[in-house]
Every structure is written in structure tokens, then in C-alpha cells.
Amino acid sequence: xxxxxxxxxxxxxxxxxxxxxxxxxxRRYDRLADALRSIDEQSTPVARVIVVDNTPAEERKRPxxxxxxxxxxxxxxxxxxxxxxxGIAHALALGADHILLLxxxxxxxxKEFIADALxxxxxxxxxxxxxxxxxxxxxxxxxxxxxKGIRRTYRVADVEPMGRIQGFAHLFNGCLAPAETFTRFxxxxxxxxxxxxxxxxxxxxxxxxxxxxxxxxxKVTHPSARxxxxxxxxxxxxxxxxxxxVKRELTFRNRGYVFSRxxxxxxxxxxxxxxxxxxxxxxxxxxxxxWVRLTIRGMRSRLGPPTARDGKNNRxxx
Length: 318
Known about the structure:
With about 325 residues, the chain is of the alpha/beta class. Helix content is about 35%, strand content about 25%. Strands 1-4-3-2-5-11 form a 6-stranded mixed beta sheet, with helices on both faces. Strands 6, 7, 10 and 12 form a 4-stranded mixed beta sheet that branches. The protein has a two-stranded antiparallel sheet with strand order 8-9. It starts with a strand and ends in a 19-residue tail after the last helix. It has 2 domains: about 1-225, Alpha-Beta Complex (Spore Coat Polysaccharide Biosynthesis Protein SpsA, Chain A), CATH 3.90.550; about 225-310, no CATH class. The relative contact order is 0.13. The protein has helices at about 30-40, 80-95, 115-125, 155-160, 180-185, 195-205, 245-260, 265-280, 285-300, and strands spanning about 1-5, 20-25, 50-55, 70-75, 100-105, 105-110, 130-135, 140-150, 150-155, 165, 175-180, 210-220, 230-235, 235-240.
């Protein structure tokens, strides 16, 4: 790994909050341009954008932004988890006071996003403040579900009136945290690669006394993941089952790891959830057996990139 960077200047330290942004990129340079544009347009300037680029060398393109840029090039695909580890550590080393995390296919909504996020951090004294992830194709819908009572909802209108949701967040897209959050609670777990590192970080933070808040006044856009959620008991219980084979493998394995350590009751519910999903709804015994095998692999901490067992460099999209 090596990096290319604009000349660093401490003049950015005078900006309110001294915010550094970290984006993990992989191939989607058109989407990355939108993410960078949403940062460039903020009324509260970002001191520096750190782009961790997992893209293969033959497809790599230098990102364009008006904000000071550090372009960290990786010769090995570190996945979303490893990319955030590298980017956050670099931001800390450069003296960031606050760190904004953003997906390469996400974008901040509104020019006051960072100003509002800093205000929310101050008002709540949170260790991490997170936005609502809005479906970029349907602005009245959420990308991921939130609980409303005992049911789950994707409707923005159901969640927005809540104002602040204590102790829950969909990470990491658009979340803002003081630098001390990462020195206190640690960095994402690089072994999880993708699909689960954000849940692990959330549970680690909450489990050691951290204050995590979702502010519904903050919004980011993102492609919807609703097609991956399959109802097994109406809106009360859903099974996440990605279409992509690699994402499915990592999702199931990492759920086994994360929930066996942080939320064993959810892991127990998963055996009911996925039995209903695969056997009762689909009659797919092979699919269920594969889910069990991957879940046990996670429970045994057999982690790493999906091709780590054969030592090959990974080319999986985050």
C-alpha cells in the first residue's frame, strides 16, 4: 500500500469541528463523484477527504474534489472494513477532531449536513451520530428497516417524527464521530471484510458504554437494500439473504460471529428465521444447510476475506 496526497496544511484546523471525511471506494467512480460533490457543497467545510481506493490498478482513476484530498491506494482489496480501518487511522494520524464516514455510493443530503451533525453531537453528547439512509430512487422510503413498535418499517414518514433514536444506527454511511470515539472503542474489525463490520462496531460501542444516536434530521442517500430482506412473519421478522453469492457467504458467516458474541438471543432467533425462510417458504434444504455451515464458521471466528483460504487477492465489491 502507498498513498498519494495533496500537501497537508494545518490551515484547515480552523474550520468548525475540524472534520475529516473517509470514503472507501471500489470501481464506482461515477458514484464516488456524487459523494465527493456532496462534501464539496457543505456550508461547513471539510478539512480533508481521505479516499481509500480498493480498485484494481488497471481500472484506477484519481478522484476529483475541491476539498484537500488524500488518495490511499491499496494493492490488495481490503473490503469495506479494512478500508475504513486504514482511512480512520490515517485521519487520526493527521490530527482529525471529527471523522465523517461515507460510502462511495452514498451522498450527504443538503448543504447543512455537517453543520447539523456537529450540532447534534453537541446536543446529545453522543459518541457517534448517524443519519437516516434514504432510498435514492424513492425518497419517501428508507434503504434499511427501522423498528416501529414490534414491526419493521421502511417508510420515512414513520421514522422521521421520532427525532432521535437512542442506541441504534445503520452504520457507517454518513455517520460522524469525534476522534476519541475510535481511540476509545477501537476501529472496525478488518477480519469481517464486509457485511457485519458495522454491526460489530455498533455492538462493541454500545456494550462498553458508548452513546450512539440516529438523528432523523440528518439524511444520506444510498441504493436500497430492501430486495435482500425477505419477510418470514410479516413485518415482524425478516431474513436477510443477498443475491450475490459472496455477499451471502459473508453476511451469514459474519452474523454468526457478531451475534454469538454480542446478541446471542438474535443468533438463536436466526435458526428459526432461516429455517422458516429456507425450509417453510422455499423448501430449500441445501440452502439451509449452507446457512448453518456458514453461521458455525462465524461462531468459530473463521473470518477473513472470502478467498483468504487460498491466499488469492480479492476482487469482491464492497
